[in-house]
Amino acid sequence: MQNFEAFLLENLPTSKSIHPTYEKALQQMLKAGGKRFRPALLLGVVKAYNPLMSAGARYAAYAVELLHTYSLIHDDLPAMDNSPLRRGEPTLHVLYDEVTAILVGDALNTYSFEVLANAPFSDYTRVKLIDELAKNGGLNGMVLGQAMDCYFENRPLGIEDIKTLHTNKTAKLIAASLKMGAIIVGREELAESLYVFGIKLGLLFQIQDDILDVTQSSQEAGKLTNNDGDKNSFVTILGLVESIKEADALALELSDELESFDENLHYELSPLLTRYINRHKNSSDT
Amino acid sequence: MQNFEAFLLENLPTSKSIHPTYEKALQQMLKAGGKRFRPALLLGVVKAYNPLMSAGARYAAYAVELLHTYSLIHDDLPAMDNSPLRRGEPTLHVLYDEVTAILVGDALNTYSFEVLANAPFSDYTRVKLIDELAKNGGLNGMVLGQAMDCYFENRPLGIEDIKTLHTNKTAKLIAASLKMGAIIVGREELAESLYVFGIKLGLLFQIQDDILDVTQSSQEAGKLTNNDGDKNSFVTILGLVESIKEADALALELSDELESFDENLHYELSPLLTRYINRHKNSSDT
């Protein structure tokens, strides 16, 4: 992923104007690092089936990261999580103001589609990727999940509803990342099974986040932990012990599925996913 | 435009979930009406050159209206204009809360690209339209304009900088609407001149808004007027009399250009534009 990180830094959004801080604010959260988990998934699938397309696929990986980054910026706003810290740095509304955080988020959301519209693929592939990112990152995907998360704060949900919440809020974009990789290499017959795998992976990821939120310090996480208050989380509903059991069970299921992938896909995704699948067992590994 | 209005109402975004107000909030500002000026421009160009494509072009017109509507919702937020009223109705953050207004805006932004990715055009045309909407509605277009507008509140700008501000904030999306019409009918040789015409039209539109903001009542405008405070406006910089002179001069220039359009384009756009070009002369016509 060093390769992707360098690509991202070379392709940061730029904007020349008399506004003294707009361009810097646009770039701030992108440059602040992060796990680049979604790009890694997309690029892993591409590398498994057509390594020659890896360079071009970085544009699609970047688009997903742009959309993900905008969502973090808006989730951190005072009206939502009111988080002072993200990726180890002050959040944009703290560094600048709320206006900047709202507008930078808006800009990165739109920019993700501009990047895909100009990525080095056929028009057919570009349209497929744009549709996939919009559907999973939009009003019946990530945004619905965030709306549910905010609305049902202080209104406890059952376990099925919280799974629906996080399927939308977290899992769909992760699943879309894998599927977009399959679209890029023209393996659309694999797209659906990768998507289903990604949904489960995203749910595991969220259960792990909820676990780490109560077991990890802010310094380890690079963001404020124990900050979820009365939000619905797997830990508040199931308790810590049951959440860890649920995570263990899902981790085992995903490990088995990973083993059943064909050789190339297993070779690419296994090093990445084995680490993530088990991250709730080692709270110092973020 | 009755046709477009009916189309929009039949194609409102839907979202079935346990969230009791999310779907209603998504639809609220779209159903509240509005001039549908950008859709009318796009559809006018299409009708001039290929009326058979008018039905399909409504999807593109809708995408532009979605992006425009998201921008109004975010501009009205407490951190920005803090407007209580829009399109004659309470704004979303008043009706629901800030979270809802932020998320509905985010959702409509993303949805505009989903609509274009599924519009009944060739993949080539879809990609061109998505690129155009994203470039003009994004970080070096509408969002930059809004960022400048907010940042330079209380910091007076010169006339050239305020033109740059409104070229980005207002004119580029209007220009893009005309250009997208040309792209749909495959008249890309007209796209650039229509774009330049649209930039001037957008500037006129903004000068007129600034004029109407001080000459019109809130009831007439369907939004809170005299609410721009210390924002840079043509009226605060040039004064009302000079602003009206500037609007008159630009209106004359645009009328001349409109006369020079070919017969079909003139026939389609003239009824629409003649009314808008002169709207600052008749403050009861919104």
Automatic annotation (TrEMBL), chains A, B:
Swiss-Prot/TrEMBL cofactor(s): Mg(2+)
Alphabetized GO MF terms: metal ion binding; prenyltransferase activity
Return the similarity comment.
Belongs to the FPP/GGPP synthase family.
A Gene Ontology biological process noted in the UniProt record is: terpenoid biosynthetic process
Instruction: Spell out the InterPro entries in the cross-references.
Output: Isoprenoid_synthase_dom_sf, Polyprenyl_synt, Polyprenyl_synt_CS
- Mind telling me which Pfam families this protein's record contains? polyprenyl_synt
Q: What is this protein called?
A: Geranyltranstransferase
- Keywords tagged on the record: Isoprene biosynthesis, Magnesium, Metal-binding, Transferase
Origin species, per record, is Sulfurimonas hongkongensis
